[in-house]
Amino acid sequence: MSDITVLGIFVADISFSGNKLPSTGETILGDSYNVGPGGKGCNQAIAISRLGGKVNFISKLGDDDYGKLAINKLKKDNIDTSNIIISNKHKTGVAGIHVDRNTGKNAITVVRGAPSSLTINEIDTNLFKQSKIFLTQLEIPIEVTLHCLKAAKEYGLINILNPAPACKLSNDFFKLVDYFTPNETEAEFYTGIKITNEKEAKLAAAKLIDLGIKKIIITLGEKGLFYSDGKEEIFLKATSVKAIDTTGAGDAFNGGLAFGLSKKKSIKECLELANKVAGLSTTKLGAGDAMPYIKDLS
After folding, report:
1. Is 296 a catalytic residue?
2. The one catalytic residue among 13, 251, 289, 296
3. pLDDT tens column, 183-224
């Protein structure tokens, strides 16, 4: 039995670190590279497991070397892989990541590969009976994501939607979401409000609540986060760390949030935990490999 079910993609992250991000047409010399697990769903599942959570990962992989890498990595992190579909018709996804080692900022191109072919008929929704929390993003085909949100809600799960990458959603989505966790750019996409401070985050959160979402968490990068459920509001500053790679920080946050909720912690405790997990993830190069362990939080 897994307390948390994550639907999302795995991609093999190929990260390049250099003293700047290359401009169009520019070639630069990097100083290091890393090949490791990535994809929002995979990163979130690893974050949950390393905190001590029991997590089931739903995804689709190609029958290739990167697919084998995925299974090995996930099993090493004690993640239930029994609901991962292996396809001999599609390749496992890959992401190319350029990281500015001075600021930790990045530029990413993702090729989803096999997960882009995932269908509703390939999902066994009975698996939701075993979980308390369902966490997903928008890298899986929209109709599959909506189908799973509905199934999870029918079985009484708490639904967390990390709306990344941002795309147009119907009201059906919003009504099924308990926790909506956009960053400031994604929140602007859904509300039209550019967010640079707490006041603007508050306005955006109110607009999102009007759409039928129960609880909003807008992550603001180095500025922290803003939470609102229409009554209670919480603003937290970002964890103070020396960031070397911000890739996957949002995934670390969502994993920490899901874990905290599964342990029935108060919302403030969940936010503080997620905030710390996200901050620590930026102190290492890579995405999935950079997710901190529970011992790192003490």
Report:
1. no
2. 251
3. 999 999 999 999 999 999 999 999 999 999 999 999 998 889
pLDDT at 102 over 90: no
Asked if 105 and 130 count as a contact pair (C-beta separation under 8 A), the reply is no
Q: How do beta strands 158-161 and 179-180 pair?
A: parallel
Cα 153 from Cα 172, distance rounded (Å) = 12
Q: How far is CA 218 from the centre of its chain?
A: 13
If we measure between CA atoms, which residue out of 95, 98, 93, 97 comes closest to residue 70?
93
Structure confidence at residue 97 as a pLDDT band (50, 70, 90): confident
Distance separating alpha carbons of residues 35 and 15, to the nearest angstrom:
6
pLDDT, tens digit, 9 for 90 and up, residues 136-190: 999 999 999 999 999 999 999 999 999 999 999 998 899 999 999 999 999 999 9
Report the alpha-carbon distance of residue 186 to residue 102 in Å, rounded.
25
Classify residue 223 as left (phi > 0), alpha (psi -120 to 50) or beta.
Answer: alpha
Alpha-carbon distances, residue 219 vs 45, 97, 254 (angstroms): 19, 21, 10
Report in angstroms the alpha-carbon separations of 84 from 33, 37, 52, 92, 145: 28, 15, 21, 12, 15
